[in-house]
């Protein structure tokens, strides 16, 4: 008998989810599975917003950010009675396999769901924060980094026209990955992330000297998870360095946009590995991308191991730059 497989997106959406949905429908059909979409994340599981998907549903979406089937943060799914309803809804449609695109919170929910109801699943790391343990890459990160790069490059144009400091705040929740990689690839003067201790006073002499030497502007990339508000960093530039400053919170711009080639390809591969895992009776895994390539990891290890930012990257943040 043909088996039914469903997919849902949960937590913050990422560019790459739509290419993943396209591959999901195509590869499911190729493997004689009937694909279903669950709309609006775990909310859709609870509300029985689950529908059969076809080629028509995924035509013309590969170039679009966001997710055609919606995402959500579901308070109800945190409660056992709603997870029970979710299971009843899947059973009624004879859905026996589930793919979840989401972040660590979504995987915690999935783990709980599995422990209670034993539904076969595979998780695909999808969050711009890149903060899931066990995987070096989460879907959507490359597009987010490119959006940030574009934004910083544009801000640099105006920064260089005035004598100003620009404090640019990136997303990332408690993780500094987006800020750190953006700092290294956009040539900013200062990067502040939650993972490393810093003392702004240590930059004071250096920055003042740079102004003396002719520097006209500064770019500081700060992660949203640091202890200070970005406005406080801007005030520090004004009061201690003596340069007019502005704050740019990039916000949800970082979550949108046309998915990059890398995210389209990663979406294709992640989904292929996810469906292969389910067909191979790997019932409770997350597809992780590591330095050795794609690997299946038990969800228990993924959700119960704290995420660590790549140590090599952290070392770069502290490497001294020549004073101009
Ligand atoms: N312990 C849990 N039990 C049940 N459900 C959970 C649990 N933790 C999280 N969830 C579900 O997962 C959803 C998404 O989690 P969360 O808001 O943390 O986003 P995320 O998956 O980490 O993605 P992002 O990184 O984009 O924020 C929650 O709204 C909730 O429905
Ligand atoms: O869109 P929301 O629910 O405000 O969530 C914002 C959060 O989601 C993320 O964008 C991750 O998806 C975080 O970087 C950010 O802190």
UniProtKB/TrEMBL annotation:
Its cofactor is Mg(2+). Pfam families: PFK. Pathway: Carbohydrate degradation; glycolysis; D-glyceraldehyde 3-phosphate and glycerone phosphate from D-glucose: step 3/4. It is found in: Cytoplasm. GO terms for cellular component: 6-phosphofructokinase complex. InterPro entries: ATP_PFK (IPR022953), ATP_PFK_prok-type (IPR012003), Phosphofructokinase_CS (IPR015912), Phosphofructokinase_dom (IPR000023), PKF_sf (IPR035966). Residues 4-278 form the Phosphofructokinase domain. Its EC number is 2.7.1.11. Keywords: Allosteric enzyme, ATP-binding, Cytoplasm, Glycolysis, Kinase, Magnesium, Metal-binding, Nucleotide-binding, Transferase. PROSITE patterns: PHOSPHOFRUCTOKINASE. GO terms for biological process: canonical glycolysis; fructose 1,6-bisphosphate metabolic process; fructose 6-phosphate metabolic process. GO terms for molecular function: 6-phosphofructokinase activity; AMP binding; ATP binding; fructose-6-phosphate binding; identical protein binding; metal ion binding; monosaccharide binding. It catalyses: beta-D-fructose 6-phosphate + ATP = beta-D-fructose 1,6-bisphosphate + ADP + H(+). Belongs to the phosphofructokinase type A (PFKA) family. NCBIfam families: PRK03202.1 (NF002872). This is 6-phosphofructokinase. It comes from Sulfurimonas sediminis.
């Amino acid at each position: 008998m043909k088996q039914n497989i469903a997919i849902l997106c949960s937590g913050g959406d990422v560019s790459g989810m739509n290419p993943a949905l396209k591959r999901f429908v195509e590869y499911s059909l190729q493997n004689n599975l009937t694909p279903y979409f669950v709309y609006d994340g775990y909310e859709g599981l609870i509300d029985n917003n689950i529908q059969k998907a076809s080629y028509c549903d995924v035509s013309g979406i590969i170039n679009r950010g966001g997710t055609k089937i919606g995402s959500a943060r579901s308070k109800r799914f945190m409660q056992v009675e709603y997870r029970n309803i979710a299971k009843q809804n899947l059973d009624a449609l004879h859905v026996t396999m589930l793919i979840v695109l989401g972040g660590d919170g979504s995987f915690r929910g999935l783990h709980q769901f599995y422990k209670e109801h034993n539904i076969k699943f595979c998780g695909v790391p999808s969050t711009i924060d890149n903060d899931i343990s066990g995987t070096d890459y989460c879907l959507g990160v490359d597009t987010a980094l490119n959006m940030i790069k574009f934004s910083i490059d544009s801000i640099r144009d105006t920064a260089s026209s005035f004598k100003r400091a620009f404090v640019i705040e990136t997303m990332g929740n408690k993780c500094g990955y987006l800020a750190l990689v953006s700092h290294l690839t956009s040539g900013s003067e200062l990067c502040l992330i939650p993972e490393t201790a810093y003392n702004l006073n240590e930059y004071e002499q250096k920055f003042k000297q740079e102004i003396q030497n002719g520097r006209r502007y500064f770019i500081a990339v700060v992660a949203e998870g640091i202890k200070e508000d970005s406005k406080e960093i801007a005030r520090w530039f004004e009061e201690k360095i003596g340069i007019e400053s502005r704050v740019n919170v990039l916000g949800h711009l970082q979550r949108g946009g046309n998915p990059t080639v890398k995210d389209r390809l990663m979406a294709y591969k992640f989904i292929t590995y996810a469906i292969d895992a389910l067909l191979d009776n790997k019932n409770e895994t997350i597809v992780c991308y590591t330095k050795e390539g794609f690997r299946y990891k038990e969800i228990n290890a993924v959700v119960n191991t704290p995420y660590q930012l790549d140590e090599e990257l952290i070392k770069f943040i502290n490497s001294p730059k020549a004073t101009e």
